Amino acid sequence: MDIGCGSGVLAIVAAKLGFAPVVALDADASAVEATRLNAAANSVSVDVRLADALTDPPPAADVALANITRPAAATLAPRLRSRRLVVSGYLPTDEPSLPPFRHLRRVTRDGWAADLYETS
């Protein structure tokens, strides 16, 4: 599941890597349409939905991906029904703790951080 899919890059890569089914969510109708068009242009199947994962119940997924701000990630994490979570889009100085998930690994590059979590 790609949360806050924007143009669909994470969802498209997941589908190309063999993950299925792939669900992409965004609260912005333009982002939903862009993701649909980009998935079609890349010949991958992505279930794109207009939804705000911070207020609407997100679907269950084995892996959730989100390139969002740290405060949004903190709001989102307790709402997820996912075994693993990959979050990016914030600074390396931001706290890696994201309950109820257990932090496994952080990667930093060019002033940005990405973290891998799993449920305890």
Structure keywords:
120 residues; alpha/beta; seven-stranded mixed sheet
Description of the structure:
This protein has 120 residues and is of the alpha/beta class. Helix content is 23%, strand content 36%. It has helices at residues 9-16, 29-41, 70-76, and strands at 2-3, 23-26, 47-50, 61-67, 82-90, 101-109, 112-119. The chain has a seven-stranded mixed beta sheet, with helices on one face. Strand 6 and strand 7 form a beta hairpin. It starts with a strand and ends with a strand.
Helix segment tally: 3
Query: Main sheet, how many strands, which sense, barrel?
Result: 7 strands, mixed
Low-confidence stretches: none
> What's the total number of strands?
7
What proportion of the residues is helical, as a percent range? 10-25%
The largest sheet has its strands arranged as 3-2-1-4-5-7-6
Beta percentage is: 35-45%
Radius of gyration: 14 Å
Order of helices and strands: EHEHEEHEEE
Task: Give the N-terminus to C-terminus distance in angstroms.
Answer: 20 Å
Shape descriptor: globular
Specify the structural class: alpha/beta
Q: Average pLDDT across residues?
A: 96
Short overview:
The protein is an alpha/beta fold.
Q: Topology, pairings included?
A:
Layout: E1 2-3, H1 9-16, E2 23-26, H2 29-41, E3 47-50, E4 61-67, H3 70-76, E5 82-90, E6 101-109, E7 112-119
Parallel strand pairs: 1-2, 1-4, 2-3, 4-5
Antiparallel strand pairs: 5-7, 6-7
